[in-house]
Amino acid sequence: MVGDDTRRGVKRKRKKRPPFGGGRKSGRVSHDDRPPRGVWLSEDVQNYFSRVLEVERQGFDSHEDRVCFARNVFEEMVGKEVEYSCSGLVSRVTEALVPASDDATLARTCDAFAQQLPLACTDPCASHVAQALLLESADRVGTRAGVESDARRGDGTINGAPSFQVRRGAEGSEALAEFVLSVGRFLVADLDRFVWHRYANHIARSCLAALTGVECGTNGRQKPQGGQRNKVR
Fold first, then answer.
1. How many CB atoms neighbour CB 185 within 10 A?
2. Domain map of the chain by residue range?
3. Is the separation of the CB atoms in 170 and 141 below 8 Å?
4. pLDDT digits (tens, 9 = 90+) for 81-129
């Protein structure tokens, strides 16, 4: 009896139950292909981009085939460019195909991202696409054009950096240049916050490099002259 009473008075330790969600810490990014922020892709969309990724990895017979393939993929995203890019799967596919897109396709995609810059610059997946679009746009529309007379210095430079102008005549060149400037204006408006943001920080650095022609290394110091990018005006 004494033993029973003793056992009866002992409090059993309850097993800790895992929190809701299977014990995953809040804020941890899932490693599957499901997009964050509660945006879920349909099974058909996921299967489509899975096939696209497989084809991209296999390669193409010619550059023209890759350009045509990229055009078709981006057309499937019209109206949902940013939403789809919030998926890790679509982000990888889109980022890989940005360099292969023609000027008109690139301009249309940039315009879609320009309409949703707050999300595009801060989302863990979409921010990679936004950065790729920014760098590709800057490379296409920037062209060396000598030095402007009203800002000419004795050493033939403007504020120590080469002068660049937007290449005229190319389809979508004005839209691409405007996208680079729009991203710059958006980031500068709240730069003190974005420089500390995990994802927007990389876009801010890329934008500064594109606009100034000076690319910084990982330690924040200026890279050698060979690492300069085109300046967009």
1. 11
2. 42-227
3. yes
4. 999 999 889 999 999 999 999 999 999 999 999 999 999 999 999 999 9
